[in-house]
Amino acid sequence: MTDQPTARDEPLVLGIETSCDETGIGIVRGHTLLADAIASSVDEHARFGGVVPEVASRAHLEAVVPTMHRALADAGVALSDVDAIAVTAGPGLAGALLVGVAAAKGYALAAEKPIYGVNHLAAHVAVDTLEHGALPEPAIALLVSGGHSSLLLVEDLARKVTPLGSTIDDAAGEAFDKVARLLGLPFPGGPPIDRAARAGDPSAIPFPRGLSAARDLAAHRYDFSFSGLKTAVARWVEARERAGEPVPVENVAASFQEAVCDVLTAKAVDACRAHGVGTLVIGGGVAANSRIRTLAEERCAKHGITVRVPRPKLCTDNGAMVAALGSHLVAAGVTPSKLDLPADSAMPLTTVNV
Amino acid sequence: MFENRYRLRPAPPFRVPVGGGVLIVVVDSATPAVTAALASVDDTGVELLAASVTVDARAHGELLAPAVTSVLAKGGATPKDLDAVVAGLGPGPFTGLRVGLVTAAALADSLNIPAYGVCSLDALGWAAGPGRVLVATDARRKEIYWAVYEDGVRLTDPAVGKPADVLLSYGAGPLSAGADPRPEPHAARLLDGTRAAVGDGAHRYADILGLPVLDEPRYPPAAGFAALAADRVRDRMPTEPLTPLYLRRPDAVLPGERKPALR
Ligand SMILES: [Zn+2]
């Protein structure tokens, strides 16, 4: 976080995030992070190998009030001090979103504060302002997590976000989870694969790069596909097992991770160049991966593109990102949402707030 | 006994009550009815000042908060005038149920006032009148949430099950915990005295339940929640955790053996 002075005239905004398995409540003033309280139900999902929506929703209900208390205490503010409450209204798990949206409404109506129902993906972009200050516009955003893999053109973070492409099958983070399971590594798969990969050779196994061949690029220039990669890893591992040979976990992890990061960064750089954009923002849980950061920086440096990646804790889902987007919307004079705003599990990427 | 417990005033708006009465807001989203109400509780009883009931099983999240705002406005009150929040704990379909509970929790937390929970079936049982009645709400998947009441007091734990199995389950309630472990006599004893069934679930499965069904109330009435929490409100009891009565485990399947990619 840059040490910006906290100007009293900047909006003090509280953000609530419950679109997946993290109950996050963050508080920001302008671009300054004041609190980032999180309760995660990830441990409850681990044995199921993926997030169980009902388990996540139940955990959100239990966590909202305690997380709110922590956030307010950490920031040293009272709810009556905040200028607005922002909440993730979509996309995400329907039942999980609804807990956060209803909570935000309850707090907003009791404290008589304006409410902003915001897009989770736009919030992943906005969180970078807490680390690096105002976002140069236009920018390209690469958002990769267990739930999403998208390339966005951000011309105006408050009003004009255009999707360029997204995954046509699995999200990148999902591929990490599935490959981790295949290799006997724990859930979620991102961190253990990142760790294993450090001791492996990324060029050991030539795993496929989805939608990167010339014929695919015509129709899917900015789209991703990780399903074929996941199957290729499974086939490779099983062939080894059938042959009675040991599986070189480090090399598989490194080669798989390289395939994912190669495609993601190549397409992100291509999008920047095609749109004449000089800033690439990377967000989402997979942005915490060490290789994607390095590779993006290497490739962007060659083309004079600035890469902005927030620190890992801000990349994964949290309330601060929602507060950051809320703060941006308040500062941009955007009209608040109505109290009947719906949670929309399939909220389009073009919708910044409802 | 039941009819005079509350009075619905005819025409808003009203002044915020003076003379010892305290204001509460009631929220319940355990059934397709999205319910919010403003009530005054004093030593003589509970007075419903404004109520909003909308039946829409798919829009709890959209409807409830505006309903709370609207009952406050109709009652001439602001959020700061509230002294307690009363919430329906279910049982009910999970997603809708949570909307009411998290709304209630947020209201209470934000205003620093206590929250009290009431089993949503109890509100129906309270309103069903004297004698023994079966209360049933819709649990989807061709099941009901149910409990048995006598003079408004619950005799069995809230349960979920197929309407046809309710008769069997009667024996499993508190009445069977006594000297006689055989379920049949107790089921017979309970059923013998049951004069009617009440609630949305009773309407849906009237033919299977084989009991006369009361037209009203179909959904848990706001006045029932207010009346059942009134003592706690008057005594200014400490706030309660609003723990939902889910009665069912989450649908979650443990992953099986790894599926081979080859073959
Ligand atoms: Zn996310």
Automatic annotation (TrEMBL), chain A:
The record's similarity note reads: Belongs to the KAE1 / TsaD family.
Q: Where in the cell is it found?
A: Cytoplasm
Q: Which residues bind substrate?
A: L143, V144, S145, G146, G147, D177, G190, D194, N289
> Which GO MF terms does the UniProt record name?
iron ion binding; tRNA N(6)-L-threonylcarbamoyladenine synthase activity
Q: Does the keyword Disulfide bond apply?
A: no
Q: Which cofactor does it need?
A: Fe(2+)
**Keywords for this protein:** Acyltransferase, Cytoplasm, Iron, Metal-binding, Transferase, tRNA processing
NCBIfam families found in the cross-reference section: gcp_kae1, T6A_TsaD_YgjD
Q: Where is the signal peptide?
A: none
Q: Where is the Gcp-like domain?
A: 33-323
| Its job | Required for the formation of a threonylcarbamoyl group on adenosine at position 37 (t(6)A37) in tRNAs that read codons beginning with adenine. Is involved in the transfer of the threonylcarbamoyl moiety of threonylcarbamoyl-AMP (TC-AMP) to the N6 group of A37, together with TsaE and TsaB. TsaD likely plays a direct catalytic role in this reaction.
Any idea what this protein is called?
A: tRNA N6-adenosine threonylcarbamoyltransferase
**Annotated Gene Ontology cellular component terms:** cytoplasm
Enzyme Commission (EC) number: 2.3.1.234
Q: Which CDD domains match?
A: ASKHA_NBD_TsaD_bac
Under Pfam families, the record lists: TsaD
Q: Which reaction does it catalyse?
A: L-threonylcarbamoyladenylate + adenosine(37) in tRNA = N(6)-L-threonylcarbamoyladenosine(37) in tRNA + AMP + H(+)
For this chain's record, the cofactor binding note is: Binds 1 Fe(2+) ion per subunit.
Query: Mainly resides where?
Result: cytoplasm
List positions binding Fe cation.
H120, H124, D317
> Which PANTHER family does UniProt cross-reference here?
TRNA N6-ADENOSINE THREONYLCARBAMOYLTRANSFERASE (PTHR11735), TRNA N6-ADENOSINE THREONYLCARBAMOYLTRANSFERASE, MITOCHONDRIAL (PTHR11735:SF6)
Q: Which GO terms describe its biological process?
A: tRNA threonylcarbamoyladenosine modification
From TrEMBL, chain B:
Q: Which GO terms describe its biological process?
A: tRNA threonylcarbamoyladenosine modification
Gene3D superfamilies in the cross-refs: 3.30.420.40
Source organism, top-level taxon: Bacteria
The residue ranges of the Gcp-like domain are 57-174
Pfam families the record matches: TsaD
Record's InterPro entries?
A: ATPase_NBD (IPR043129), Gcp-like_dom (IPR000905), T6A_TsaB (IPR022496)
From the Swiss-Prot or TrEMBL record, give the protein name.
tRNA (Adenosine(37)-N6)-threonylcarbamoyltransferase complex dimerization subunit type 1 TsaB
Query: What is the protein's species of origin?
Result: Rugosimonospora africana
